[in-house]
Design brief:
- The chain has helices at about 5-20, 25-30, 35-40, 60-80, 85-100, 115-130, 150-160, 195-215; strands at about 110, 135-145, 170, 185-190.
- The chain starts with a helix and ends with a helix.
- It has a four-stranded mixed sheet with strand order 1-4-2-3.
- Strand 2, helix 7 and strand 3 (about 170) form a beta-alpha-beta unit.
- Helix 2 (about 25-30) crosses helix 3 (about 35-40), helix 5 (about 85-100) packs across helix 6 (about 115-130) and helix 5 (about 85-100) packs across helix 8 (about 195-215).
- It is built from eight helices and four strands, in the order H-H-H-H-H-E-H-E-H-E-E-H.
- By secondary structure, it is an alpha+beta fold.
- The chain has two domains: about 5-40; about 85-175 and about 180-215, no CATH class.
- About 55% of the residues lie in helices and about 10% in strands.
Length: about 220
């Protein structure tokens, strides 16, 4: 293609850019390189077209099979744990604390954004340890633009700890460039200042791991 042909392509490219075509769309339309289009239209003023929302796709065969398998396992799990013994409940709580609980300091400290996990921990604490309810404390980590009142009400219901026993919350500064999916009620930290209780939990947790390891790897 000679110079005249290139000139016609440039004129056409600039006109399409003025109509808010993307660089790729112009390149595909004219059959030229995207880098060439970029040079030709770099000084053309235009208003980008609003992005269309992606159409929600129906789950494919593999996704449906995965969901069905998870649901089948959930049903089987409910049947298996419907009559959980105290020992099983106690070990489950130790395992949960091993993952999300504080191991240092002088207080039992559990943090999670999952309401069911927090409720499980609180029920476990009350079931197996002598808890002075007046010493339980809750602290929320919540983005500054979220509703603190609603979050307080939610976590008070989950933990069964009155709001007046909540510590001052940590309000995180919103950074739209880093995260879009946020927990509407934030992350809940349940604290119980009792060195004796913490030591009991840590000792039993270590014992459970030690016994389990020796059972799995005898000798």
């Amino acid at each position: 293609m000679g110079y005249g042909g290139k000139l016609r392509e440039q004129v056409r490219a600039r006109a399409l850019r003025g109509d808010a075509w993307t660089l790729k769309e112009i390149a595909d339309e004219l059959g030229v390189a995207k880098s060439s289009v970029s040079r030709w239209v770099r000084d053309v003023d235009f208003e980008p077209r609003p992005r269309r929302k992606a159409r929600k796709r129906c789950p494919n065969k593999l996704q449906r099979a995965k969901a069905a398998e998870i649901e089948a396992c959930r049903v089987a799990g409910i049947e298996r744990f419907a009559h959980m013994t105290d020992d099983e409940f106690f070990c489950a709580g130790l395992g949960l604390y091993a993952g999300d609980g504080g191991k240092k300091g002088a207080e039992v400290h559990f943090a999670n954004s999952n309401s069911a996990m927090v409720a499980f921990h609180c029920a476990w604490m009350r079931r197996f340890f002598e808890i002075d309810e007046s010493r339980l404390r809750v602290q929320l980590y919540l983005h500054a633009d979220l509703d603190l009142g609603a979050a307080n009400e939610h976590w008070s219901s989950v933990t069964d700890v009155p709001v007046h026993q909540f510590n001052k919350p940590y309000r995180a500064v919103v950074d739209a460039t880093r995260r879009h999916n946020r927990h509407v009620y934030g992350c809940c930290h349940v604290r119980y200042a009792c060195t004796h209780t913490l030591r009991r939990i840590l000792g039993m947790m270590d014992a459970m791991i030690l016994v389990s390891s020796s059972t799995i790897n005898p000798g």
